[in-house]
Amino acid sequence: MKRLATLVLLFSLFGFQPPSYKMAKVKYNGGGDWYGDRTALPNLIKYCNKNLGTNFDSEESIVEAGSTEIFNYPFIFLTGHGNIIFSDQEAANVRKYLTAGGFLHIDDNYGLDKFIRPQMKKVFPELEFVELPPDHPLYNQKYKFNGLPKIHEHDGKRPQGFALIFKGRVVCFYSFECDLGNGWEDLGTYSGDTEETRQKALKMGANLVQYAMTQ
C-alpha cells in the first residue's frame, strides 16, 4: 500500500494521472469471432482520451459475459460475424451489469443479427430493440449526427441504431448495417477505407462513450 501511495504521489507531482477507467471487449461462447476488430477499441480509447478528455487505460481488456469482472468497466463492446450463446448465468450477469449502470455496445460485423437478438432476449425478456430517432441525445453529444452513419457497405441497406431501454435509460446500443467498429480500426485495415469515413466512425464512437459515461 505504501508503494502504491508513493506512486500516486509521484504521478500527481509530475502531472500524470493514472487511468480512471478501462474499456473491455466481451468474450462469449458459441463459436463466433468475438475477438474481431482487433485494433478498434485501442483506437477509440485514444480518440476519446484526446477529444473528450476521458482517462481510459490505453489498452483494451477482455471480459467474459459471465464474469464478475464485467462490473469494472463502464463501457463494453461486443462484435462478431457468427454464433453467440449466453448461458442462463451469463444472461443474468449481463442483465445485472446493465441495470446497475453499465453500457453495452453491440456492433454487427455482418451476420451477427440472427444470433444476437435471441441472446439479448434472454437478458431482457420484457424488452424489444427499438430504433432510435435521429434527434436522440445519443446522436447529439459532442458530435452531431442525423442518425447512425454508414461505414461499410454490405447488402445495400440503411444503417440502423437500435437500443434496449430500461427504465428510461439506454443500456444497450446495437449498430446494424453500419460496421462502426471496423471504422475504428487502423487506416488501411480494409480496402477502400478513407480517413474521412474513419473519422466519422470515431466521432460516432465517441458519442456512444460520452453518452454512456454521462447518462
UniProtKB/TrEMBL annotation:
Q: Which Gene3D superfamilies match?
A: Domain of unknown function DUF4159
Stretches assigned to the DUF4159 domain: 23-213
Q: Which InterPro entries does the record associate with it?
A: DUF4159
A Pfam family (short name) is DUF4159
Give the superkingdom in one word: Bacteria
This chain's protein is named: DUF4159 domain-containing protein
Q: What is the protein's species of origin? A: Hufsiella ginkgonis
